Amino acid sequence: MSRYATIVDYTLLWTVVGSVAGVGALAAGIVQVRLSRQSQHRRHNNQPSPSVAGGSVSVPTGRLPPEVLGRERVIAFIRDHSRQSPNYIVLTGPGGIGKSTIATELCRVEAEKRWRRFEHIWWISATDKTTLTLGLVTVVKQAGGSVADALSVSNGDADGPDRFWGLLQACGRWLIIFDNADDPSILAGPGQTRHSRPGDATGWLRPSKAGSIVVTTRDNNSSTWGRHATLCDVPPLDLAAATEVLLNLAPDAGPPTDAALLASRLGGFPLALHVVGMYLTYPLARFSSFREYLAAYDANDLRPGLDVGNASHDDPRDNVLETWEVSLDELARRGLKLARPLLRIISCMAPAAPFPAHLLNSLDRSLLPTDTAPQANFDVEIENALAGLLHLGLLSSAPAGGLPCVVIHPAIADAGRAHLESQHETSRARLAYRAAASCIVDAVAHLQFSAPADWPMFSLLTPHLHATLSTVAPHLNHQDLTLLCKAAATTALSYDWSGGLNAATTITESAIPWTATLGEQNPSTLLLRQQAALQLGRRGDWSGSELEFKDIVRRFEDLGAEHKRESLACRHDFARAVAHCGRWNEAEALCRGVATERAAILGIDHVETLATRHHLARSLAAQRKWHEANQLFETLLEAERRTLGDDHIATLASRDALARSLADQGRWTEAEATYREILGSRFEILGVDHPTTLANLAGLARTLEAQDRLREAAVEYERVLEARTRVLGRSHPDTLESSRLLNNVRLRLRSS
């Protein structure tokens, strides 16, 4: 283990470019979202299913200042290290010290070199499992991986890291940044616990001569990162660099000697220097010079009892906790009374992750305490406060998914939560916690778990849902906690529909502990138990799943008519579990009952009713009740195509079930035509290597073989075998079955 601990650092994570330039775009974007939200939502169900979703891996160079100072030694060290050693670099230090800026500047330098050493430069947010997974999926795609590779990574399969690293070893030289890995366990790979360590080289972090990795983190424990890591502790800026930061940001605020005194008082802490510099350029700020700000700052006694992150008495953060408060005081003085409560609310969300700004407009005005009467236009009041926070560098703008979003730095989020947890803000803290939970609850309430166009928004909300379950839930009353856990159950269900079993499980496991507080008969407790039971079945234990569903159904029925829809959803899942256990006649009866009641409550063409009718048709086909099954498939597909579209996940599933049913009836020509139609959509949406696509190809080969078109069948079986060998491995049961079927066709060809 080596350590490079004498680094001069400089950072401006939130720059004039990233903050001020985003103010107008953010405000305009919020208005656009508010005007288009309803019309957008009406179109959701008609949009096609997306392929495996990834996230942006572009380097956020817009966050850099025009000139980065004091970086030469650390940049040179990292570049030299990458040439000489396969080990990965781990930049450590407190939040706001400049780790991300070092990594960003490194990427900029490498990208602008005339002779580029790296063919690919990828930036992956490692704030939590969701953002990490989205970034990893995009890297897999850009490295030439198949849909099966992307699915393996997205679903958290055990072989995901091996697939990932296999692609990296063959795609040319690369540089990867894992940013904000403050929870190192998420880099340890799938199936790991919060206590897992990434240093064993079996997860996402491995030494490599094919490229270089830089990790930014607050964890400086060498045992965490293992023998393949080289740790670099990032200190505050030296006085010369810190002084120049202030002079560059506020050139009219006073002479260099005054700037040096203020820089020294701030301990050379980069984020504090940036926020102070931004403050001093704020029009008509109360303190407009370095000397005035220093005097006011010294007169503002630090609040006792605040513990931000791992700060100690010697940590420069102890001297800058109130830096952001001075800026908030200025915004309040200018009439932006909502700025402080909004920043407190956003502090409860996931730091360094885009948060859709328009969600703040849905807040109940009573959850935002101010000392002045509210303006007539609450939306404008919110937008002005956000613009002020952006202008002073307390937030950054970062559009995501076509939505205007804001991002809070982890250090500012830590300080905000520390203020909420202090005795000075007890009453206001309760309102802030309720408001944060309300943002998530309201956002999820406007989404449909079964609508593919809503899945990206669920993904965007997921890190903030995890954050609120961790930091906000302990402070909520029973009603608000119930609503937050219901939002968690709905989000988990959206991942079940989109194929993200691992994400669904993680969300459920994060929320389940709160059911002890809610009680056994609480509706949200039952919804979370229902998701856990469904995930149990998805992993192969449908018998255990059936027992769980049976108990949950009984408890929902005890709650009465008010929870009839939830009860029907659980009865639907219970019927699926029974079917998976092979009791088709019983499953048919259960599906009939649920379909009838769902049609009466939701309508015959509602997506939930259609889902139950789909499973009813499959139950009929499994019992060889061909006439009734065929009629139901026909009417079902007509309704799904009309209401959902040909390429909706539910429609594709019904088309696939119909093709298998036709083949089981010996109607080979019709089955072949249906399979060919499905494959066109499967190729476009899921890709040629997706397991469902390969199953459809195998079904097509079976229909060709049954029609004695052996050469055509052999070609399709060969395609399936080649893909399954590559995707699943030679010993997988599906691969072995494909090999057996191909050998049978070849024997028939030789004997014919």
UniProtKB/TrEMBL annotation:
UniProt keyword terms in alphabetical order: Membrane, Transmembrane, Transmembrane helix
Membrane-crossing segments per the record: 12-33
Region listing for Disordered, in residue ranges: 37-65
Compositional bias segments (type: Low complexity): 48-62
InterPro entries (UniProt xref): NB-ARC, NLR-like, P-loop_NTPase, TPR-like_helical_dom_sf
Domain NB-ARC: 83-180
A single GO molecular function term of this UniProt record: ADP binding
Protein name per UniProt: Tetratricopeptide repeat protein
Provenance organism: Actinomycetospora cinnamomea
